[in-house]
Amino acid sequence: MSRKNLVRFAASLLILVGAGTARAEPTDPEIRLEHGRFGPAQVAVPANTPFKVRVTNADTVAIEFESFELHRERVVQPGETITIYFPPLASGTYQFFDDFHHDTPPGAIVAQ
Fold this sequence. Notes:
single chain; about 40% strand; alpha+beta; five-stranded mixed beta sheet; Immunoglobulin-like; 1 helix; elongated
């Protein structure tokens, strides 16, 4: 193998190895309310980092995504998806609930 071909081979190998170790971008957590339940009921986010959560209301009535601990309160109409932005959170568990329907089990955002 010529020196030129050897250099090309080595460069190609480095590119392939680098592509295999590249990390995928994290996706924003999604919470879906359907049949009176949040799914997933718990989402994990990185602590001390701003983040956003997409909330979809797949039910037939409006809901109110609310969290006293996170200081968030948003009405989500049927079939609507909203994005809620959050500041960096200290490690911990932060509860949310549907304030329009108190029989809906609460969920949690876990910063870790």
